[in-house]
Design brief:
By secondary structure, the chain is an alpha+beta fold. It has seven helices and seven strands; from the N terminus they run H-H-E-E-H-E-H-E-H-H-E-E-E-H. A hairpin with a 7-residue loop joins strand 5 and strand 6.
């Protein structure tokens, strides 16, 4: 009986340690919920920033998920902003995420990257993000602001 328990324990550990097959829809679906790489550039930034941690990218996307309601384009005019290029999951981006030399070659004009713009918070106005694929403007929550600050995005003027 003791031997059987040891075998079952080892089998359980080994099964949980195995990576799921790449073709599994259940494995790929969550990875499509966030870009593999987010490149922040231009606007208020003095240099490019690359977010390559998929889980952190997911947290950031979730933090930008609240619809902003009606935001007049005029209220965004003149606000500081940061350009975004979102490289959604695909085996294509994996080598870039793991190699900073390759990462720096990413072109935001690449048609495979979704373009976006992050309008930084101003006074009482929240950060607003607009990106390809989103049906409307999104508010950046406090959690999203903290992630952006980690990457030295100048939130305060």
């Amino acid at each position: 009986m003791k031997a059987l328990l040891l075998v079952l324990s080892a089998l359980t550990v080994s099964l949980h340690g195995l990576p799921a097959p790449a073709t599994s829809h259940l494995v790929d679906a969550p990875r499509r919920a966030a870009p593999r790489i987010i490149k922040l550039h231009g606007g208020a930034l003095d240099s490019r920033r690359y977010l390559t941690d998929w889980y952190e990218n997911l947290d950031l996307m979730l933090a930008m998920n609240e619809p902003s309601g009606k935001v007049a384009d005029l209220s965004l005019a003149g606000r500081r902003y940061v350009e975004m290029a979102l490289y959604w999951y695909g085996p294509t981006w994996e080598p870039f995420a793991k190699d900073t030399t390759l990462l720096k070659t990413l072109d935001p004009a690449d048609p495979r990257a979704a373009a976006g713009r992050l309008h930084l918070p101003q006074g009482a106005l929240p950060g607003i993000v607009i990106y390809q694929g989103a049906s409307q403007y999104r508010v950046v929550s406090e959690k999203g602001i903290k992630i952006l600050e980690k990457y030295r995005v100048p939130i305060a003027p």
